[in-house]
Design goal:
The chain is of the alpha+beta class. The protein folds into 2 domains: 7-58, no CATH class; 62-130, Arc Repressor Mutant, subunit A (Orthogonal Bundle). The protein is built from 5 helices and 4 strands, in the order ααββαβααβ. Strands 1-2 form a two-stranded antiparallel sheet. Helix 3 (62-70) runs antiparallel to helix 4 (89-102) and helix 4 (89-102) packs across helix 5 (111-125). Keywords: Methylation, Ribonucleoprotein, Ribosomal protein, RNA-binding, rRNA-binding. One of its GO terms (molecular function) is large ribosomal subunit rRNA binding. It comes from Strombidium inclinatum.
Amino acid sequence: GVARPSPKIGQALGPLGVNMMQFCQEFNARTADKFKEDTPMRVLLTAYADRSYKFVVKPPPSSWFIKKAASVPKGGGEPGHTIGGRVSIKYLYEIAKVKQEVDPDLRSHDVEGILRMLMGTAKSMGIEVVEDTFPPTPLKIDV
């Protein structure tokens, strides 16, 4: 991910007294070698009264990974009624391994538990989980 000074970032950081330029520089330095530029990142920011701050960069949400694996821009309009796409359970397993590695909240969870969570997320998005490899090409999700 890349953070650029913008009104959206300014509106989020300004009331907290956080210097937007300094935050963007630190964020970009921390994520430059780990994630691609267009990868959406989650950030947990703690701002202190003396205008100092610390932040933790978290990987993209599970829904982003699932949409990438299913090659769809969004999930089904009516989950449970309309199928917005399909994703292989093998792909979800690979996503689970990536999430376990890069998400500090999931490091203590086993891959099977993360896989079950991803299957539930896919179902709630209207993405069907299939057992065969769909599509037949290898999954490449660069984060």
